[in-house]
Amino acid sequence: MSAVMSVGSRNRRYRGWVLPIVGIAVWWLASNQGWSQSGLFVSPEKVAATAWDQIASGKFWRAISASLARNLSGFSIGTTLGLVMGCLLGLSRYFERLVGPSFNTFKQISLFAWIPLISVWFGLGDLAKVVFLSLAALVPVVVNTCDGLRNVPPNLLEVARVYRFTRWQTIIGVMLPAALPSIFTGIYLALVYSWLATIGAEYLLVSGEGIGNTLIDGSEHFMMDLVLFGMVVIGLVGWALNALARTVERRMQRLYGIAPR
Amino acid sequence: MARAQTVRLEQYTAPVLPSDNVKRLPPSPARSARKVEVPRTSAWRFNLGDKALPWLLPLTLLGLWYLGVERGWLSEQVLPPPAYIYETLSNLVTSGDLWLNASASLQRVIVGFTLGAFIGMALGLAMGLSRTVEDYLLPTFNALVQIPVLGWLPFALLLFGIGETLKYVLIAKAAMVPIALCTLQAFHQAPKGLLEVGRAYGFSRRQSVISIVLPAAIPTLFTGLRLGFTKAWLSLVVVELVASSEGLGYLIVYGRQLFQLDLVMAAVVVVGALGLLIDRGFDYLERRLNRGRPTAGARLS
Amino acid sequence: MELKFHKGSIAVALAAILAIPLAHADVLRVGVATAGGGDPVTFSGSSLGIVRNQQLLEKAFAGTGTEVQWFFFKGAGPAINEALSNQQLDFAYQGDLPAVVGRSNGLDTKLLAAVGVRSNLYLAVPKGSPLKSVEDLKGKKVAIFRGTNGHLVAINLLAEHGLTERDIKVINLDTGSTQAALVSNGVDAAFGGRELFKLRDQGLIDIIYDNPDQDVRYTRQTALVVRGAYEKEHPDNVQKVVDTLVDAAKWTSEDSHRDAVFAEWAKSNEPAESLRADFKGVSIRDRASPLVDNFLLGRYQAVADQAREEKLIRRPVSIDGWFETSYLQSALKTKGLENYWTPYGPDGKQPAVNAVAAVTSKQGS
Fold this sequence. Notes:
The complex is a heterotrimer of chains A (261), B (301) and C (365).
Chain A: H1 2-33, H2 44-56, H3 59-91, H4 93-108, H5 115-122, H6 126-150, H7 154-162, H8 167-204, H9 211-220, H10 224-256
Helix pairs in contact in A: 2-10, 3-4, 3-6, 3-8, 3-9, 5-6, 6-8, 8-9, 8-10, 9-10
Chain B: H1 43-71, H2 82-95, H3 97-129, H4 131-145, H5 149-160, H6 164-188, H7 192-200, H8 205-242, H9 248-257, H10 261-289
Chain C: H1 2-23, E1 27-32, H2 47-53, H3 56-60, E2 67-72, H4 76-85, E3 91-95, H5 96-104, E4 109-120, E5 122-126, E6 141-144, H6 149-160, E7 169-172, H7 175-183, E8 189-192, H8 195-201, E9 205-209, E10 219-227, H9 228-233, H10 235-253, H11 258-265, H12 272-278, H13 284-287, H14 294-309, H15 326-335, H16 355-360
Parallel strand pairs in C: 1-2, 1-3, 6-7, 6-8
Antiparallel strand pairs in C: 3-10, 4-10, 5-8, 5-9
Helix pairs in contact in C: 2-10, 4-5, 5-14, 8-12, 10-15
């Protein structure tokens, strides 16, 4: 099987492009030939034109920077708090018994159900959105950090005991590095969830600028081209954040000599 | 070395070890032994304390909440008294509104989830079985996955209007993604050792899939289903928050529009409780499925 | 070296943090219960829109160090309640029902003057729909913007035709989403305001009810709301705001300004034809009257009572002590406009017998 892979691998990479290109071609054909009379059916050229207009007029940059700024602040606050809480939960048995079950129940509640409460407690401005984003980022970080710290392979802990490590040395030298892959999964998930929550917050706590607001504007004024543009941008940013997280993860793994999962 | 000789058992004597030229480790530096704490309490007291501890935090919070409302630390719009919420909940139950809305939500999520599970498993199966299909489909799939459900909402709103179709489509999309990806991963994680054995026995492709890949894939598939359901439940709340005429999210919106925070909190409590119940159900199912299996991670190699 | 850098940046951060409250020391925040439109964003239908367009508030407060900030809320009245409860607004343009809901939940507010009365509510259906009258709505999907002043009017209208909210499938949609839903056939019918005329003129929807008899039970009112605490702390600012509002109301009410008024309102991206259709056969003077007369009081109490009946609020609301008309009285007196607007009786049609007495007797209620 490996022989086949190396011969055709370059061709294989191009196969992924076939479907999108065919899709766009069919779409362009459909709009050209007027297969659908619905006012909602826009041609690819119109979407591209709208995209160009948005980028050139600066509206796009304002929107995307507002969204990303919120995303970043919420993500960093949520991740920091999440790391602290996850470490506490993972390392202290008392803390885990005290807070663990409540936290488990709390994380079951759908994230978006908190929005009406957050909007009453924190208003409709950026503060509420950042609170919501921090919440979204906090949960996966806590869960994964706690999991990672609890699932340290017992043989490593035995070696630490043999070498008579103090508790602090065990934590810093053995448990944290062993939990690092899990922690990274948590941070990676937090990145994904906080971007999702950014869009959600702009949708449900409507005020200010953002790429989600662009989407809603398009939806309300029946500008399907704006909607599609917004969707593409959101997808691209999500993909970029994903790729960023993966690169950082791989870099750290090489640094610390951890085998990739 | 001399050829091995058989020695009768009675004649065998263990060789005597010289005890003077054995190298010994130098004495380790004196370090006070760490005290290992042994719980001094009796068994049942320990159990009681252990069981009671999880309740400490919620009860303290509840107490603080009650005090806060009594003493007026927080205005009533910001945090209604707990008694109010309890009253609202019981009103909902007795008036039948809760059942009406909860069943509407549950029905939507079950239909959407089943739809998404089917599509997801079919996609995962197709991509797992055939490398070519995976090459064609996976990049596009990954790209479309990047757009969250909320990103699809305006597009789907314009296409499907505000009806049950919209909700089924969005919930199915949310559920389909983790299920398809997990199915694909299950195929990739098929134990290679077992596959080799199958090849040695001359299994056809179909036989190897059915007897080797699928049974080994069940834990991953189940994880995918569980994750898919969590995502489906999440999208349900979101979609109902935006456009619906009944359901738990509808109750939340109703409470929000009429500034009845207790209704909002009651609905949030119900959403959380239902989500918890379903999660526990999945947990139980997973444990039953994994009952006779070797623990995850045990491989032949 | 490292330590110095550390200390320096901490000092800068602290200074920045301390400077923030100073920068926002004197701000006057006005919230408007509609998304509005245009660039800069403004809104139509009331004299407050004129205030916004002609920057009258900014001019009135120029040189006093008070900055005027305008906030527009897509979530309309309910969102204003949320902002008021967070003390993020000082003044608000808010409808009758959401103000009542806020008051019933303990929000401390005062009503200063009427800003837009006798607004109509319209019932629209997608083009080509078989629904022709309110009775046909039974069992259909209808979009209502819950919690706004149109909500109660919709309930009244349904009750008049023998239906309740439970007889129809209500979907809560805001103004923009309502229009989108109507055009894409997402709902069978929708209640809304004059924004629907634009769609009707484009041939996308039909309007099957438009309050032809001008029955006041099917109209909604909007008032200028002020946060109770702010009113106690800055009565002079409140007086200035009311003065500005009365000036704008007079300008709006002049018959000769009718076209100019529509032109101003059209700056919010609302076509002038929609505005004319909404104000068809009604004198702008009546609609823009800021008077807190028997009509307004009667409507607000009726809304409060009915909201309690419909279980939209849980605690009964009385309008006693809610209207703070001293600012309005003094503004009318200083400008000599006591007899400019007609105070109406509770049914909205009969002018009260003794105009001056009617206005001044509103003090205590």
